[in-house]
Every structure is written in structure tokens, then in C-alpha cells.
Amino acid sequence: MQIGEEQEEFEILPEEEQPLVLPEREPQHPEAAPA
Amino acid sequence: MSHADPAVPELVVGAWRGYRVWRIRGDRLTGWWYTGFVWAPGVSEASCDARRWTLRGRRARHAGLAAPQRDCACGLYALREPWDFAGYLPSRHFGISDETNAVIGVVAGWGRVFRGEHGWRAQFARPVALYGTADLGERVDRIARRYGCQVVEGRSGLLAVAKQHA
Fold first, then answer.
1. Under an 8 A CB cutoff, do A1 and B20 touch?
2. Which of B25, B35, B148, B162 is the most buried (most CB within 10 A)?
3. Which ipTM did the prediction report?
4. Do B14 and A6 make contact, defined as CB atoms within 8 angstroms?
């Protein structure tokens, strides 16, 4: 099957394997820190 | 979309879908061109059987490396654009070959992928849908059950499947 001479490389993750990106945590105020 | 360093593959989320042709051998799907590669039910992984001559004889061209590799023909192939799905296969993409037991379908691919102007070749792929035709009859239904994919009838059905996300 001919797909073309010039080829560009990709790394494709299936949607179910996409990396988990955690939201940045809000900085805690000293008074909110547990004792 | 391009990226700054062509040596670093661009990261994409979500498998790509494309069109291809398999050959039916018994209850299995095999590759199309000059290959005896048998597609596995579910997910298939590409392998490279390219060899090179060395002083110690013929050795694997990409020993220890995952297929596909640049400057090679390895990988699991698909075309990005549909054709009319009627009559002979377009020779510009498929060459002139025996179309006996050919079945058209939609395939999803991911992992290492090289994309060209007309299609791509991937490390991992799975059949998503097969195009049922009168001449293939119930063989397509049987293979679809084995491979866990659907059977569609009509060109518009295949196009709709290809547009869905994997």
C-alpha cells in the first residue's frame, strides 16, 4: 500500500491510555494547614 | 501541524482511523502486499522482517527496535482518504494484484506511526469495521465476530465509522 514518500513520525496514545494530568494544587495558607 | 524538532515524534492522543484492504484466508485476515502477516483478533502489533547482509550473514535490519521504522516499509497500513469501494482497487495505492478474497474495512492505528501524504503505517492496529459485500457473503460476518468488529454495508456506512474516534 503506497502512503507517500515523505513521512512524518508520530507517537499516538489511544484515548484510554492518555497521560493523567493532575491540576495544580492551590497553595495552602498557613492557617489552613493542619496542626 | 508541525513541530520544532523533526527528530522528536509529535505526541497525539486518540487512535487514528483509516481505510485498508485485507485478504481473507480461512477465518483470518492477512496483509495485502507480499506478506503472510496474519492479523490477530483484537489488536495486532507490527513486526519488521527486513534483513540486511552483514559479514556474518543476513541479519535483522532493525534488531531490537519496534516497528515501524523510518526508511523501511514495515508497519500496519491504512489510507487516509476513501476511494469509491467499487470495482478494482486504485492501483496508485494498491498496485496491480489479485483481488480474490479481498475485504475492505476501517482500521484504527496507534503507537509509533509514520504518516505520509496518503496514509499511515502504525505499530498497533485493530480492525474496526469490514465492508460486507454479496460476493463475500457470510464469511465477512464470521470474521467480524472473530475479530470483534462490525460489518457495514454501503460506502456511507464505512465513512461514518471512519469518522468516529477510536
1. yes
2. B162
3. 0.81
4. no
